[in-house]
Design a protein that fits this description.
The complex is a heterodimer. By secondary structure, chain A is mainly α. Chain A is 74% helix and 1% strand. Chain A has a two-stranded antiparallel sheet with strand order 1-2. Chain B has one domain: Helix Hairpins (Orthogonal Bundle). The termini of chain B are far apart. The chains are: A mainly alpha, B mainly alpha.
């Protein structure tokens, strides 16, 4: 029973917020965000301290394992920081007030429901649980993307997201249907066992459909086209959440599909994964160079990062799983740190073009420094955590014999450094637009940026984080081999 | 009449072809239509084809179990939820833009 407590805490907080919101006046609604943050913090604490790392519930349809444990911590951390970053925008404390982004009770509870879906996703051991939790994770994201009802761009982003999301869901569920028909069971492990053997045309069709759906969630080229418009049109805190939590959920779904469902075949699909990884990295990076809107720029940056994640599926699982989890942690922290600065800048000035960042090192040096460190970490500059994360992933591809792919990835890292430096150049070399008007940051936002920046710098320096992930996930792989 | 119908009762293959055709109709609609509501209808057809697929496969592969039926119910519910969210967004969009034609959805470009 105790393995489901973190989920129950998050669900309880979400419903408590929805109900409390009904009886609150507009002035007292400022307590909603701290309430949501406290609920998430309590769930993280319970998950980290109290929850056993193995166990199962509901007849084995809901199971806990070390990898799910890590994913849950990461999902909740991403949501916690998103809540902290949303406070200024939603309370209207921003310098330039965003119109039509109120409804705090609904906003925070929608985020929490989405997190619950992701948490169930990693624990699902059944096609039904897996599909329902996947939809529970993504349906709130459609709503969040369209949150600003009077902004045509936000509604447009929501519409594009919901239609392509429905298409992805249709791919996945039709693929699941064929798998169910072939195996006669909806249990993931049973399907994997019964389908072991030679390929059949129906099985290949199911694989193609499920992998295409996974590609949509993880923004793998050629299924990435929704990302740029959705990231640009969604409210900025929602974009931050999409870029980290939705990507983490996509990776969790890829884990379920590639390690649990098709675990026996994945070693033979190395070339396919390598080609998709190369395409995703290259397209994301090349298109990011010409972007002017910083949210769209970050969207293509996030697409290229998805390509780096795919490198982890190439090698043996005992090396790939910890490397991908560690890079996910690094990516979440770095990307949130970058988005914290972008949210802050949009709040203060209402602008979101890269050229608008000119002279930021003079108007607010600390924020400029934080944004620079975060972008350098995403590019993989040595002392920062992004370098260490990429190093593990590249070494896996290299050990698996994909030297050409490592070369492609290294070239891509260089390209990405070029376009991240474009932002840094605007901040540090170009003069400010209107002279000497210092921009201030609120306490909550400054504190969040400080915590995230410390994470960006230290995660790569202290090796025990990676060692801990590595040590705990080995047990998961042993259990996978038995099942 | 019933005897005649029973003699030509569709088997697994006919049902699966029906599902595939429905799915393909939905996919075609999703790729060619320009009206947002028609797109949502097309997505609904695809999801319902998948639900029918589960019912058919349950009937012909393991009729003593109900796994496929349960899955089909979940798919129907989730398709409905998806369409509710989609329609809400379409209504919000229509209020601002006075159109739901997706060929006009180009406020953002890169």
């Amino acid at each position: 029973m105790s393995i489901i407590i973190p989920e129950l805490i998050v669900i309880g907080t979400a419903f408590a917020i929805v109900l409390a919101d009904l009886f609150m006046s507009e002035r007292t609604r400022v307590v909603i965000a701290p309430l949501a943050a406290l609920g998430l913090l309590a769930a993280i604490a319970v998950n980290a301290i109290h929850t056993p790392v193995t166990g199962e519930l509901l007849g084995g349809r809901f199971a806990m394992d070390p990898v799910a444990w890590w994913f849950k911590i990461l999902f909740m951390t991403a949501a916690l920081f998103t809540v902290l970053l949303s406070i200024d925008t939603l309370d209207g404390r921003a310098g330039v007030r965003a119109r039509g982004i109120g409804f705090r009770g609904e906003y925070y509870s929608t985020i929490l429901f989405s997190v619950v879906g992701m948490m169930f996703l990693v624990s699902a051991r059944d096609l039904a649980t897996l599909f329902v939790s996947l939809e529970l994770a993504t349906l709130p994201l459609f709503v969040l993307a369209a949150w600003r009802r009077d902004d045509p761009r936000s509604s447009e982003a929501g519409l594009k997201y919901v239609i392509l999301g429905a298409l992805a869901a249709a791919f996945i569920v039709y693929g699941f249907g064929i798998l169910y028909g072939l195996a006669g069971s909806t249990n993931l492990d049973v399907i994997a066992q019964r389908l072991a053997g030679p390929y059949t045309p129906a099985f290949l069709l199911a694989v193609a459909l499920v992998l295409a759906g996974t590609g949509f969630k993880l923004t793998i080229v050629p299924f990435h086209m929704w990302a740029a418009d959705v990231y640009q049109g969604a409210p900025t805190p929602v974009t931050a959440y999409l870029s980290v939590a939705s990507k983490a959920a996509g990776l969790a779904f890829a884990f379920q599909v590639l390690y649990r469902l098709f675990g026996g075949w994945v070693p033979h699909w190395g070339l396919l994964i390598a080609v998709f990884a190369a395409l995703t990295m290259t397209l994301g990076n090349v298109v990011a160079i010409v972007q002017h809107n910083i949210k769209r720029f970050m969207a293509f940056s996030a697409i290229s990062q998805a390509g780096y994640f795919l490198l982890g599926f190439l090698g043996a699982a005992d090396a790939g799983v910890p490397a991908m989890l560690f890079y996910l942690l690094v990516y979440i922290v770095s990307n949130l740190a970058a988005f914290a600065c972008i949210i802050w800048f949009a709040n203060e000035t209402g602008k979101e073009h890269i050229e608008d960042y000119r002279g930021l090192s003079l108007t607010n040096p600390l924020m400029a420094l934080a944004l620079m460190v975060a972008l350098f970490s995403l590019a993989g500059i040595p002392p920062l955590s992004g370098f260490v994360g990429k190093f593990f992933l590249f070494s896996i591809a290299s050990q698996a014999g994909y030297h050409w792919l490592v070369a492609v990835a290294a070239v891509n890292s260089t390209i990405s450094l070029y376009y991240y430096l474009r932002v840094v150049r605007q901040m540090y070399i170009e003069p400010p637009a209107d002279p000497a008007a210092p921009l201030r940051a609120s306490m909550s936002l400054s504190a969040t940026v400080a915590i995230l920046s410390v994470g960006v710098v230290t995660l790569g320096i202290f090796p025990m984080v990676y060692d801990h992930i590595h040590a705990t996930t080995i047990a998961w792989l042993a259990s996978l081999a038995q099942g | 009449m019933t005897e005649l119908l029973a003699r030509f009762a569709p088997g697994l293959q006919e049902w699966l072809v029906l599902c595939a055709v429905l799915y393909a109709i939905g996919l075609y609609g999703l790729l060619t239509r320009r009206n947002a509501i028609a797109l949502l209808m097309a997505a609904e057809i695809m999801l319902n084809a998948a639900a029918l697929n589960f019912v058919v496969l349950n009937r012909f592969t393991s009729p003593q179990l109900v796994d496929g039926h349960v899955m089909a119910l979940f798919v129907v519910v989730l398709a409905a939820a998806e369409i509710v969210v989609g329609m809400a967004i379409v209504v919000a969009l229509y209020r601002i833009r006075n159109t739901v034609d997706i060929s006009h959805m180009n406020y953002m470009k890169g």
